[in-house]
Fold these 3 entries.
Entry 1:
Amino acid sequence: MAEAKFEAALIKKLEAEGWTYRKDLSYVPIKVLEGHWREVLNENNAYKLNGNP
């Protein structure tokens, strides 16, 4: 139960800081998370990547 309380408090804190909780990314394989972060990084660095992922 302590872990669930910690997780809820962490999510609430991150949301207060402007982050968005993505339920679709909860309890997914690590490869899905890695793919998501790769997309985020590619978007954030598009100006440096010149169209290359």
Entry 2:
Amino acid sequence: MNIAIFGGSFDPPHIGHEQIATLALKELEIDKLFVVPTYLNPFKNDSFLDANTRLELINDIFVDMKKVEVLDYEVNQKEKVTTFETVKYLKSLYDIDKIYLIIGADNLKSIHLWYNAKKLKELVEFIVISREQHSIKNDYIDAQTLHLDIDISSSKLRENMELEYIPKKIQQKVRKFWKIE
């Protein structure tokens, strides 16, 4: 079984996340794509939306996508969970031949700081999602690159909520959280 893991804070989820999943399903030979929202990013101290709200929104976005499963493992731990732990968890559940780990190019500058980064490099094949403003040059990991055609990030949306970047399936809920009329 070949799988891909697409984890993150998804704070808030946006159309770029949908496009990344679609791109991964199209470009990678995988049987299943696990979308894994964090309880709390190991490098952060808080999040805008709470973990259960982010999980609910992610479930709403991906409910109809074949081969996509939203994994609630990290949220259910109710603490910071490293990618290495999630990979080990999935390996304990499934007979996996190959694991692709999908990360944003913005993560490359700190990938060497990830928990058990050296062992993680042995367990996964990295897939880097590039956007125009982020360099994908990195000497720490070898990675395949997939290009995302939209320049959006959750941090930009937290600063300036623009609903056109929010998937239609969740726009009403997001309006409520941001108190948008």
Entry 3:
Amino acid sequence: MVLLNNVAQAQKKLAGHVRARRLAVGLTQEGLAARSGVSLPTLRKFEQKGLISLESFLKLLMVLGGLDKLTAAVEPEAPAFASIDDVLNDAPKTRKKGWRK
């Protein structure tokens, strides 16, 4: 798990990942912009500052790959309990407190 202190760090990390993927597949900024339909200034701003719309980000991932990993990362985990009985059985047993006579 990667811990990020704020949104700006997350944006820069995503931008760095996209830039690394672009370079790994041998695309220039111009080539990726043309293939994805994202304008070149938008792509440059994203790689430099991490600022981009969700639509443009998804377009980039569709060209570079990795969209499946991103969607898998936000999938909810399997529930820990199958029924209310499982929840009640897992609850800690607390001692009843009261007045003694």
